[in-house]
Design brief:
The protein is an alpha/beta fold. It contains 18 helices and twelve strands. The strands form two sheets. Strands 5, 6, 7, 8, 9, 10, 11 and 12 form an eight-stranded mixed sheet that branches.
Length: 416
């Protein structure tokens, strides 16, 4: 039988992510070219789901299939993971289709000798996998990490900081598709279909991103949590604003005033320039430079935003492989904040934002700066941090958007 285009694409993505260390979104974008919208959506659901849930899927394959996953040929491993996801997680997918097409993927890879094994394992999974995964306990961080497919350290962090009930709720929701929200570009005039958000002024909930409208600069795909970070800067016309980690430009193009957008990597800096031009953000100038070694003339800013590199623990629904790559970066985050403070005038402000849920990269970094935290919670009470009300913390299981920590800090001393 022929393998459906969606399953073929998902299979190729799994091979590239787990065998070639490719990024899931980039691998999917290239593999899915030419698919119609329906097949593309199904392929993405398959690929992203299998990447996210690989830990319990592998456990089920090993326990029920009775063969260590690491010892399987890569095509067999990818086919079994893809089939296991369909059997365990996707309502409405016939078990026979999941079994037969997984077998055909192995045959198409030229591994005829592995076809009987794949068929036998898939048939056992079809009768037992869903029940096995449902029965997995989640009473400790380690158990929850296996059941909901996270590294142990992530589950331990959320267990400690949020408590078991909220940690599990957060783990569950980040295994579901992320919200589809765009920011309406008010520099352009257009009627866009969607549901306006009640709390974030330019946010529009949509079924899918209109690629033609995106190309025309009418909108920008951006979660409500990310848009909130841009709003928190509070920049106004006549002010100078520094965006220290600006690419791809979602927040930079939100800002009013004269904006200097800094990006270290030349390719991303070019992409940032293109995005600013597409959105008509003529107030933004791009500087290709290291945020820790800025040109001397970049100083005296009224405001700054440091949307720093982080472990991405608040964006795992949208970035399926991020949980397996996640690395906290508090030293870099602190260094970037201190670099920004040197370029902001006395009594100016810095917004520090990161799309992660981890105190070591959130409030601990802010506390280490010694800067005065202003009360953002009073401005945005619906997003107030549960432990530190002067900060904001969007939580996927509470607010339905990506997780963002946001602080606004005042620079008390003179800029150097």
């Amino acid at each position: 039988m022929a393998v459906s285009p969606a399953r073929r694409v998902a299979y190729d993505v799994l091979l590239r992510v787990f065998e070639q260390d490719a990024y899931a979104d980039r691998a999917f974008r290239s593999a899915a070219e030419g698919l119609d919208s329906r097949e593309r959506a199904f392929a993405q659901r398959l690929a992203y789901g299998a990447v996210q849930l690989v830990r319990p899927l592998d456990l089920g394959i090993e326990k029920i299939g009775r063969r260590p996953v690491r010892k399987l040929d890569p095509p067999v491993r990818a086919a079994l993971r893809l089939g296991a996801l369909q059997l365990a997680e996707l309502q409405g997918v016939p078990a026979r289709a999941a079994v037969d097409e997984s077998v055909e993927l192995v045959r198409a890879a030229g591994l005829e000798r592995a076809v009987p094994f794949t068929n036998a394992v898939m048939r056992r999974l079809a009768t037992s996998l869903a029940g096995f995964l449902h029965s997995l306990p989640a009473g400790t961080p380690h158990e929850a990490a296996i059941k909901h497919s996270y590294p142990d350290w992530v589950a331990e962090t959320w267990w400690r900081e949020l408590g078991p009930e909220e940690a599990i709720a957060l783990m569950r929701v980040q295994n579901e598709p992320a919200e589809t929200v765009v920011r309406v570009n008010h520099r352009r005039s257009a009627q866009l279909e969607g549901r306006p958000d009640a709390e974030i002024p330019a946010a529009l909930h949509v079924e899918r991103v209109d690629e033609a409208a995106l190309e025309a600069g009418l909108l920008w795909p951006q979660s409500r949590g990310s848009q909130l970070a841009g709003l928190a800067v509070g920049s106004r016309e006549g002010e100078r604003v520094l965006d220290l980690c600006a690419a791809p430009g979602g927040k930079a193009t939100q800002l009013a005033g004269e904006v200097v957008a800094v990006e270290k990597h030349p390719g991303r800096a070019r992409e940032l320039e293109e995005n600013c031009a597409r959105l008509g953000a003529t107030n933004v100038s791009v500087v290709c430079a290291d945020g820790l070694a800025l040109p001397g003339e970049l100083k005296g800013f009224d405001r700054a935003i440091v949307d720093a590199p982080c472990s991405n623990l608040g964006a795992l629904a949208a970035r399926p492989d991020a949980r397996w790559r996640a690395t906290p970066a508090p030293e870099l985050q602190l260094a970037l904040l201190r670099a920004a403070a040197e370029r902001v005038r006395s009594a100016g402000t810095i917004v520090y934002s990161v799309c992660t849920i981890n105190a070591a990269e959130n409030e601990d970094v802010v506390d280490a700066t010694g800067l005065t935290a202003l009360d953002l919670g009073a401005e945005w009470p619906g997003f107030r941090h549960p432990r530190r009300p002067e900060f904001l913390l969007t939580l996927p299981h509470v607010h339905g958007t990506s997780g963002f920590f946001i602080a606004r800090l005042r620079v008390d001393g003179p800029a150097s």
